[in-house]
Write a structure and sequence with these properties.
387 residues; alpha+beta; two-stranded antiparallel sheet; 15 helices; 16% strand
Amino acid sequence: MVSDPTAEPSAARDKLPDPLLRPFRTSVLEGFSQGGAGRPRESTVFEKLLGMEARWPDIRQSNVLDWLLCPRYFMWKHRFGVEPRHYRRSEALDIGTFFHTYMACHYLGLDEGRAVSVVGAMIEEAIEQELTFEDKGPLVDRLSGLTRSLERGSAMARMMARLFLARFPLHPAYKAVCTELNLRARQTGISQTINGTLDLVLLDTSRNEVWIADHKTCKEPPMDRIRTVAFEPQTAVYPILLQTAIDDGKVPGLDPGTPVVGFTHNVVRKPSIILRTKDSFEEYLERCEDYYEGRGEFEAAKGERTLSPPMLQNWMRITTTTLTTEQQSLLYEVGRACKANPDSARYYRNPGACFKWGKPCAYLPLCEKRDDELPALLAEEYRVTDV
């Protein structure tokens, strides 16, 4: 069960499977402070070289996946909080982000007009940041292109959310308790605090059971996407975080002891339809809606869609709110990575991740440099984020 946040990690971690722990078994232990997270320690040689202090981040779904992707990527992004100077907040405002926002607004009881206003404020913030960049080319053209791109992404996400909610309406027995619920807790045997944000918490009033809803947009078929949800990090930790918060009386609307029993995954495939030259964007949206609904030019594929629908809702009941040995091993490893003394040997490079997203990784220029060349490149091309 979850321990007291101020407690030191248990010695039981040493009983975990040795192969997963070996990279951090000896060298990392020597680099830890003897106290809990936030206890002062001397800067390492690598930190002094960079002129930067490493952070000790919480364990989150995102940094678990980033650690598995590439330790060096994890170090720059999560330990030092570094991002390219040319990075724009608008890059994070994709269809998935807008879809999550529209879904949250719906379950908060906001009408579509107010939801559009919420998303509009997000777009305005991104456009305001664009004014701070000194890129080549007329500013008017850049702002016009950015605005058009974000507004189209918003319109697509609004259509996706509307169709999904119409196809999978919430059963009358289920009550939306809260959305975007952020929780933190310590787990026995894990050296770092676990942190997660739950998209939606549902209460089955007929059985007095709690479900966690998770919204996902993806490029692959939803039937393929849900094959991994059973062993993703959030599936392991979210029930623990939520059950602890409920039992501590920290979730309004839920009585202590109300059991967390499972997940529902709301999965929508992003349309792969190409915007034809002859079509306006409004016509393109209509074609995308036909794709989701199996109408018009997509009607002939109804049989295939039955086997591989572009939208699905997957309910998964869990049997326990404790970690398996595999999950404990993974979180233990990432917890150590969140606190280890940083250097370029311990946080090694994974060449297989350099073009993971079809373009060079944002940190590839740093990976191409020797340690003594890093300070100059960091100062010229990168910045440290506030969070």
